[in-house]
Amino acid sequence: EVQLVESGGGLVQPGGSLRLSCAASGFTFSSYWMHWVRQAPGKGLVWVSRIDSDGSSTSYADSVKGRFTISRDNAKNTVYLQMNSLRTEDTAVYYCVRGFEYWGRGTLVTVSS
Amino acid sequence: DVVMTQSPLALPVTLGQPASISCRSSQSLVHSDGNTYLNWFQQRPGQSPRRLIYKVSNRDSGVPDRFSGSGSGTDFTLKISRVEAEDVGVYYCMQGTHWPPWTFGQGTKVEIK
Fold first, then answer.
1. Does the beta carbon of B46 lie under 8 angstroms from any beta carbon of chain A?
2. Contact yes or no for B86/B21 (Cβ under 8 A)
3. What is the DSSP letter of B38?
4. Which of A10, A40, A42, B35 has the smallest number of CB atoms closer than 10 Å to its CB?
5. Cβ pair A95:B54 closer than 8 A
6. Contacts of B105 in chain A (CB under 8 A)
């Protein structure tokens, strides 16, 4: 069974940093692209970032480019999202996604003073 | 970026009656490989999104056959043949042809009258 479990969310002040993790199991992790998608409270879904299967290629939404970094450790079956220079508008539930077929339960990031 | 526009944004339906959601893209979603990467997702209250339909009309495993997708080019439709109580939630279309970014529609909230 495919499982994606996010962690690392929490409350952070504007300008601060957080690193999200997503632990994957139930499939050959090193064979799949992975994405992060976020959802602000009461709002819709917004794609944030993706990484290819070996980590050699990444993409970002314009709203996070230069502030967020996606990475992966295929030995640990884990994908990460390093979030720096956080803004109040980054407040959202962040979902780890495989191929848009499998979604984690999400982790809440709240940016507030 | 490709803009995805859904209508209506709210859809009150009677149990057992059909429902239909429209999704239009700002440019054709036909990929150079001949496929059209248009997905539909359901998000029930308090849950993660779940993919229902991929490549316009292909149902994911476990998705009831009362859900169907159709369309081509820039115009797409999700139909529920007979709405059940468990279908309440928000439905999103998403394109994966012209990336990055992958882009979602605003969402359509389906509720029971």
1. no
2. no
3. E
4. A42
5. no
6. 44
**pLDDT (average), residues B24-44:** 98
Determine, for residues B39 and A61 on separate chains, whether the beta-carbon distance falls below 8 Å.
no
Both tokens assigned to B84: 């059940």
Q: Which residues of B touch A37 (CB under 8 A)?
A: 49
Q: Kindly state the tokens that stand for A41.
A: 């409270």
User: What average pLDDT does range B23-27 have in this prediction?
Assistant: 98
Determine the pLDDT at residue B83.
98
Task: Compute the C-alpha angle B90/B94/B96, nearest 5°.
Answer: 160
| Contact call for residues A96 and A79 (beta carbons, < 8 A) | yes
Q: What is the pLDDT of residue A16?
A: 98
A100: which 2 tokens? 């848009």
- In angstroms, the CA A55 to CA A44 distance is 28
